[in-house]
Amino acid sequence: YKSKKIIVDNEDKHYFTERNYISIINPYKQFFSTGRNNRGELIYKKEHNFKELLKIAKIDDEFSKLMYEKIGLFEKKLKVIIFDEMCLKYVNCEDCVKDKTCTVYLDEIKEFLDNGTIFPRFCGNYFYIYEKSARNSINKKNDTYNLERKRDLLEHIYQIGKGEHIDGSKLEETEKCKNKLVLHYLSKNSKKVPLWIIPNALTLGELQTLFLILDTTSQKRIVATMKNTDELKIDNKDIISFSGHIELIRQMRNIINHYEPLLPFMISEMTNKKIEDSKLFITFNLLDDEISEIEIPNLKANIDVNSVNSKSKRILDFMFQTIKENNTNSL
């Protein structure tokens, strides 16, 4: 930090035993840079106290806490909506055998993975995906890129629901699901876990893959519900966008869960001239559930804005303003 002209008082040196240099200095160093040299390297001409950097880190920390709670609410809601949509295909099926126990999916998955003939009734887009063409139109194409992870997901769902591999062999201890609801149903004579229990054991990444597998009508209903809008206003472009939003939310959650700074990720994703036009900014609009107030002091950092850090400063201001607005809304 000395090479960056950051002055660390003795009472602040303990922070370097709590966080490593990479996560406490590197993410925020550009805020204290005065420009770049002819090799493109950041240069530092003005001294700053480490306490100014801590103010930025505090904004990052509190924004991460806020996003952690919002992402949790988003994920819970997404799980309910996706599996409600899937279960309807079994309990309210008009042109096939109804299954009020929602366990037939296990036979369907096994039949499909063993023989590759009829896919499970919730897998309407298993072989397809929507993509943007060169002219920005949306086309439904054969999906070759995601087929492996789609198959892996079906195998995983089967393992959760039956407690064994597709071929009937026992699961390794590390493969077994530890969810108590899953274990409860596997302990019964039927040894079949109802479909509505499965989301408790799936990751956000697996939910994204599952969303891609569903038929188009179901995808549109899910997007409409998650965005609190009319289903008729949802088109195929919204399906692509929503899947992208899930991926960004998944990446943010992984960063937060590993206690890493979120600001560098936001800076790398918000590449548009106006940060409000970036996809990540739009993603934040999906995370708008009201949550509890987060207490913060006045965290305004003393930053000299220049060509190196101007956009980063706008993102930092957005993070700070988001925390303040959340506190106002929770009163």
Put simply, the count of helices is 12
| Radius of gyration over all CA atoms, rounded | 24 Å
Query: Mean pLDDT across all residues, rounded?
Result: 87
Q: What helical percentage do the residues reach? A: 40-55%
Outline, from the CA principal axes?
elongated
Describe this structure as you would to a colleague.
It is a single chain. With 331 residues, the protein is mainly α. The protein has helices spanning 15-18, 21-24, 50-91, 104-115, 147-162, 180-186, 204-213, 216-226, 236-257, 263-269, 279-286, 310-329, and strands spanning 6-7, 35-36, 42-43, 48-49, 128-132, 138-142. It has a two-stranded parallel sheet. A two-stranded antiparallel sheet has the order 2-3. A two-stranded antiparallel ribbon has the order 5-6. Strand 5 (128-132) and strand 6 (138-142) form a beta hairpin. The longest helix has 42 residues, at 50-91.
Write a compact overview of the structure shown.
With 331 residues, the chain is mainly alpha-helical. 49% of the residues lie in helices and 5% in strands.
Features:
single chain, 331 residues, mainly alpha, two-stranded parallel ribbon, two-stranded antiparallel ribbon, 12 helices, 6 strands, elongated
Layout: helices, strands, pairs:
Blueprint (H helix, E strand, L loop, with lengths): L5 E2 L7 H4 L2 H4 L10 E2 L5 E2 L4 E2 H42 L12 H12 L12 E5 L5 E5 L4 H16 L17 H7 L17 H10 L2 H11 L9 H22 L5 H7 L9 H8 L23 H20 L2
Parallel strand pairs: 1-4
Antiparallel strand pairs: 2-3, 5-6
Helix pairs in contact: 3-7, 3-8, 3-9, 3-12, 4-5, 7-9, 8-9, 9-11
